[in-house]
Amino acid sequence: MEKIITLGELMLRLTPPDYAKIDQTRSFMANYGGAEANVAVSLAYLGHRCYFISKLPPTDVGDSAIKHLRSHNICTDYIARGSSLMGIYFYESGFGGRPSKVIYNRRHSAFTRIRTTEFDFDEIFKDATWFHVSGITLALGKSVREVTFECLKYCKKYHVPVSFDFNFRSKLWEIDEAREIYKKVVPYVDYLFASYWDANTMMEILPDNENASKEEKTINVMRKLINKYDISAVFMTDRTVYSATENSLKASYITKDNVYHTNDYHFQILDRIGAGDAFASGVIHCLIKDKSNLEHALDFGIVTCVLKHTISGDSSRLKEEDIYDYLKGCKGVVR
Amino acid sequence: MEKIITLGELMLRLTPPDYAKIDQTRSFMANYGGAEANVAVSLAYLGHRCYFISKLPPTDVGDSAIKHLRSHNICTDYIARGSSLMGIYFYESGFGGRPSKVIYNRRHSAFTRIRTTEFDFDEIFKDATWFHVSGITLALGKSVREVTFECLKYCKKYHVPVSFDFNFRSKLWEIDEAREIYKKVVPYVDYLFASYWDANTMMEILPDNENASKEEKTINVMRKLINKYDISAVFMTDRTVYSATENSLKASYITKDNVYHTNDYHFQILDRIGAGDAFASGVIHCLIKDKSNLEHALDFGIVTCVLKHTISGDSSRLKEEDIYDYLKGCKGVVR
Amino acid sequence: MEKIITLGELMLRLTPPDYAKIDQTRSFMANYGGAEANVAVSLAYLGHRCYFISKLPPTDVGDSAIKHLRSHNICTDYIARGSSLMGIYFYESGFGGRPSKVIYNRRHSAFTRIRTTEFDFDEIFKDATWFHVSGITLALGKSVREVTFECLKYCKKYHVPVSFDFNFRSKLWEIDEAREIYKKVVPYVDYLFASYWDANTMMEILPDNENASKEEKTINVMRKLINKYDISAVFMTDRTVYSATENSLKASYITKDNVYHTNDYHFQILDRIGAGDAFASGVIHCLIKDKSNLEHALDFGIVTCVLKHTISGDSSRLKEEDIYDYLKGCKGVVR
Amino acid sequence: MEKIITLGELMLRLTPPDYAKIDQTRSFMANYGGAEANVAVSLAYLGHRCYFISKLPPTDVGDSAIKHLRSHNICTDYIARGSSLMGIYFYESGFGGRPSKVIYNRRHSAFTRIRTTEFDFDEIFKDATWFHVSGITLALGKSVREVTFECLKYCKKYHVPVSFDFNFRSKLWEIDEAREIYKKVVPYVDYLFASYWDANTMMEILPDNENASKEEKTINVMRKLINKYDISAVFMTDRTVYSATENSLKASYITKDNVYHTNDYHFQILDRIGAGDAFASGVIHCLIKDKSNLEHALDFGIVTCVLKHTISGDSSRLKEEDIYDYLKGCKGVVR
Amino acid sequence: MEKIITLGELMLRLTPPDYAKIDQTRSFMANYGGAEANVAVSLAYLGHRCYFISKLPPTDVGDSAIKHLRSHNICTDYIARGSSLMGIYFYESGFGGRPSKVIYNRRHSAFTRIRTTEFDFDEIFKDATWFHVSGITLALGKSVREVTFECLKYCKKYHVPVSFDFNFRSKLWEIDEAREIYKKVVPYVDYLFASYWDANTMMEILPDNENASKEEKTINVMRKLINKYDISAVFMTDRTVYSATENSLKASYITKDNVYHTNDYHFQILDRIGAGDAFASGVIHCLIKDKSNLEHALDFGIVTCVLKHTISGDSSRLKEEDIYDYLKGCKGVVR
Amino acid sequence: MEKIITLGELMLRLTPPDYAKIDQTRSFMANYGGAEANVAVSLAYLGHRCYFISKLPPTDVGDSAIKHLRSHNICTDYIARGSSLMGIYFYESGFGGRPSKVIYNRRHSAFTRIRTTEFDFDEIFKDATWFHVSGITLALGKSVREVTFECLKYCKKYHVPVSFDFNFRSKLWEIDEAREIYKKVVPYVDYLFASYWDANTMMEILPDNENASKEEKTINVMRKLINKYDISAVFMTDRTVYSATENSLKASYITKDNVYHTNDYHFQILDRIGAGDAFASGVIHCLIKDKSNLEHALDFGIVTCVLKHTISGDSSRLKEEDIYDYLKGCKGVVR
């Protein structure tokens, strides 16, 4: 039976209602999210059985986070409990020319206290279908990284495909520290979600010709990365921000032999948190079903990402048919 | 004294707040609406005295629906009470590329148990000014249809003008069943709200030249309909859906001798439910005041429809001056 | 592994906020509940693995109900999907001298369309630990009853203990019809939740001495019932209603050899819906752990019931330690 | 046909939610109320046809007030429109030992600009069944008083029974001014709602024996008042305040020949505004049906008053059966 | 130490939530605002120490208004207390083609009862840095005007720079009355916020050539005004209204020697109230820091104004860095 | 001029609305509170000028906490900014037999990173009127304690009276660690808020006769404490918990020569957080005005405490007149 595994922190997100600024509000809407949890939830809506490795405080707040995952049918057996701090972030939703804001209140959280001894990795990975993790998890300290590398090693041991999203967050760690870690992770990875900047700055892969076009340099650099680390494919999105509530997005993939760009989608935004995770989930969904059709995976992924912006909360709740309806141009109410 | 009569079901609409999906919400906003009730309420705001024929369960929920109508000054003397189920529908408001959804919970409702013996049709129609009904009502089963035809017969008896909106809903009945009923209703009708598809599929009126333009075919088919059933005018709208929150609309009317198209209005949407009913109400309002100026009726109707999209709830709350201000281009705040 | 099974309808409960009357409100709080689902959820909080047999419409509303159960860790594999109507009930929360009101909008719901062919009863019951059902389920029509009796037969086949709560609802069926069915169900039952009235009116077991005290008659009648149908124990509660927000409760059990009464608990009410189900769940929890200590089961059950009144929603969310803390007299905030 | 008329101001009440203090809140719940409007609404729920004489500003806020009345089936034909200020009051709901607070923002309101020329008193009173007004209306200035006296004169002309509630508000006028006016009004009155203090201080009727018991003095003074002004009956309530959320109440009536006291009712409070008006409405309801049974009228009135405290908003929404159920001791939920 | 002074009314703003119309809502969001208070609050966020001269009723509602100012660090020592009416206005937020509405409930408010004897003007102005007032204050009656002129005289006495915003409101006074007052105020003013219409209609300054372009006439008229009254600079905005939720704005300044126009900014609107006040505050902020760079002041002012539209409530909450980020094109979320 | 100083952490409190459990809620009400901040706010409402020493993160969340204090007129000049974590606590409001719960999310917060180098203690204390701190602050780690002792030393230096509340929290530190610190603090203290348990367990002062009554032992132990450390008076409360929503309280003070007990107050609870801080503030208020009347201080303090339970949020908002009205028995609404 199918078993998709992701590893990461699940945080409580606190958002003022009605586009209020944080210093205006008297209440917060509560959601639970985190990059890899979002991928798991999104995949669950696309019909997969997902497992989430994490650690949460043994409190009612930690319980709430677990209930959230369970309601989305995520298996929560691999969530350790312990330590006292819930990772929290405040999100101020931007409007028009006023940008959104993220304020982290997550340092020293229970997840940063995760230990390899809390898990039976053989049991977790021996029959796994897929493993996904992102750079945010890597940024959360030494013991989180130990658990991550343990997961990656067991993926190798049991031939579990690995997807990895760079997701560099400058608020969480320094470039120098990140670079060192990213270089240790990529050798384990089969499918990469990464930008030109990631390849360039983090992996220190330089274009052969600095004067080439952005697109040529991206293909050049990604091909070098692909060859060096034996990556199956690199996926990336390209976002244009018109305002906090109006963006456009297109996506590309690059393999040894192919390059493909999707259309550019222009859209309005209800909640942009987790859009990148939705993209990853859409691509992974298709890869699990059929590794050979990357073009379809990319089209499916970018629409999952675009439509995620219309759903509040950190993760997509889209079913396969929602994506196909959109690809077919269906926009109406049928009564 | 003026007396406009409409016949239909009044349902409880349950809408998650803040563009939440139905499976996300912990509360629902409650409104009451239904195609013909919406027309009545909208006409009441335009200054008319309206009466609503219906049936509701004898519960506090039914009482709430009646209070809703009364607050809008609708006469509720012709609402029978009985049976136990309130017609309910869930409405998930779409956002951007995510379309809106309607989930009916209305089968077997009290209204479907309406009986001709519950009303004194002579008393209702003897001094009536206008009667309006739509295809939704016809879809709700045999005993609802009996009441409808009784109303139509009494309109004939007392020379009450009849307007009818096709409003075909595929979720409520089959095309074959609908076709048979529509054909029996149209002979009673003076003013029709219908699309080319309605004329073509339901009334089985085919264009003389299948290769003509859409507009030519529409005029051709509608003229045949008009002549066959002695219809005074057919009104229709043409909607373009850019997203769940952005549409455009234009309207046309066709008579024996004339065709007229309004401007195309591009607009943002707060709540699109009842927009078609608002269109009908705007047109009917003008017809009651002056049957000879159809062009003005159409312009008034389309603006009523466009502005309805900016009002939450199922019915327009626009006054005549709001429509005229918009037609005059007034958009500002005056303090 | 443990497997507790309950069978029943899961309804959407709509409650006006802030003690508003139904005809005052513009919004409803949404919960999901139903007698046997409440027992399952309550048992899940007490640490058990519960399965729920039911049928829900294949809509987002049905999905929401399932997510609700999953968040509480209920296994939802035995929920059939089909038919269009969600069972709904409106609940007007009373205050002081103004009593609460329940308005059912559940006739013809998907659950009433449940079919024995939709389930594999061998698979469901072969390793079951317990089965619970109540009279509300029996009231919902012929095909629901067929499924119920099928369950009861498989319990016999696999020696699964059965608990049954009379839960007669006069709004759902007539006494005569109920009497006939109850008499067919009780022979399958091991543990009964029933009142003197139930035994008297439904099972038609009369006291030997009409002039005896209420308590004597109850013991007399219940002993006759126990002997006739080989019941292990009968549990009952005795509620005094001071106002909609203030009640008191005590409980008793009667076996062949014993009678035991708990203390009388006086308490304030936040939400009384599901209190009886919480009582059953507390008793069943203890019976599963230790069938021999009925006194403890009853004390545990009545406190679960009393504390349920302080939790909004249809089911208890109490953990074992909450009950024991209360029994030990702990009432304070510890910071 | 029946036609009950009341005269008074309809104000917008602004209440912070959740027992917040006014200086804590960021939102206000909006209700519409006023002593005589409350009596009319309460009587409408008891099945009567009521008309309300008033004046409101010609704004959307005034419209909302009118919609509020219409939803309760009050006839709003006698409400003049004009002037700019809506009468507003802020209500801070007390809790336990913290008392409730009323802050008036009503000086110079539209109602204070009411004019006798705005009404056709013959048309209003020629077929009236009852007229009710209170001392609050009298306190609102000279032109309000002119309209009131005009009403009273037309009641005399058309033999319409008049009920009057002293309702003295020290925040609105001085005792000296009030005394003079009250003395001019009482000669027109048939049924009085008044306390010993009102009779003593306002009407300057002194007890024959200052040393008699409170009850003896009350009977003595009221009998003198009754004889002097030919009053049919005086009704009064006696409230004990244990806390903002817990009070008790009993009522008495005094006629030439009789005295009767109800039981003392102890109750919890959701919203005490309008309780006195509910008392008056309950009494008037019974008087209209049967003038001879004052005892029943008083029992009915005090229960209407007691139950009003359990309903939020300014007026009772109780039906006749709610009162009788309470009198019969019914307190439960029937499902 | 810096001391910016503004004079005006602080009103309670009541806004229906979620774009509801006033006649739909059951609750209002409460904010406090007023033209000159908004300028003070906005300047406080830009780092200034502001004092507000006003008068409020001695009630909890008045206290709330003061707490609001204090939370924004405004000095409230110069707010007199007395009289009973709080100035209130209702704001119906428009949507798309449906325009916003303001309904004043402010006549006879406490502020209109302000008296010169309530303030020690020497103490207030002797060390003041700046004084700002607008035409709304002037419209509020004779005694408000007396206080205003007293302020203006003390500004002269202590050489305090004065900025003035015409802010003519036709709902508050007649053009003829306004004209007379404006002409008396402008001689005291150093920096003017005024439109061509203000100069033309209020100050009765006519263009030399009626046939010149709008821009030429504006420059011509403003230069004449500048020369006549020795004004340092005139600032103005030019708004295009596409819909209630989408506008564009550009700004200009005119001095004896220079004219400068900003870019045209196109934007979406969350709350447009106070946008003009935000513009004034942005300009004044820069003038206080550097009177010589009017171009920068205007660019800063127009962005403050544009971004104010994205913040709910009556005043800007923007910090200097928010404005500079926007001017630099930063639009993204940085996590 | 008066200057009351308190030192402590200001936390964000997150409370589910409507008595929901933490694992039920989708939103949290946001308040700011902390023992010593509560004392300062409460004193500000009683008319004092208060200063608060603390440290908060330099984020919008920290800004919100400061705005909260400013709105209550607290001087925020002594609040350092730095470090990233906001101290947060979750509060689940109990109901009836279900107790309230506090879940701390405050470890490693910015306040625990406070440094003595961040403050100019001479400037702070040279003209101070009073200093208050509690044991919660002492529990928050070494560097917080350093700042606390620095404050205490400067109080000695400038002869500032010191009040101290034991406030031991077992969730924050161990008894052994606490005991050591408490013993170092008490020598600096003039007025103590402490229980028998505090004196006994923390200060290790044993009663001369273990068999004496609780009251005798308390007086005996406190007198020994008073004599040993030269304390002016010890204040204490004695709470009886009937349920989460119903408690009673009485208070006592003990000096060298006197003992006094207040009445026992029985009350309902809206929000019990901060009740002890309100007690301290009421006593301190009276001590500042008149050190000699301890009896009055205690009566005033216990009523402040009792009434705090009726106000939501962490601090009292009671004015002096509210306390006196309650002491005089006023409980009604005056309109």
Describe the structure.
The structure is a homohexamer. The first copy, chain A, is α/β, with parallel strands linked by helices. Chain A has a single domain, classed as Ribokinase (UDP-N-acetylmuramoyl-L-alanine:D-glutamate ligase), CATH 3.40.1190. Chain A is about 35% helix and about 20% strand. The first copy, chain A, has 11 helices and 14 strands. Chain A has helices at about 35-45, 60-70, 120-125, 135-140, 140-160, 175-185, 195-200, 215-230, 275-290, 295-310, 320-325, and strands at about 5, 10-15, 25-35, 50-55, 80, 90, 100-105, 130-135, 160-165, 190-195, 235-245, 245-255, 260, 265-270. In chain A, strands 1, 4, 5, 8, 9, 10, 11, 12, 13 and 14 form a 10-stranded mixed β-sheet that branches. In chain A, strands 3-2-6-7 form a 4-stranded mixed β-sheet. The model of chain A has no long low-confidence stretch (mean pLDDT about 95). Chains in contact: A-B, A-C, A-E, A-F, B-C, B-D, B-E, C-D, C-F, D-E, D-F, E-F. The interface of A and F includes residues 59 and 67 of A.
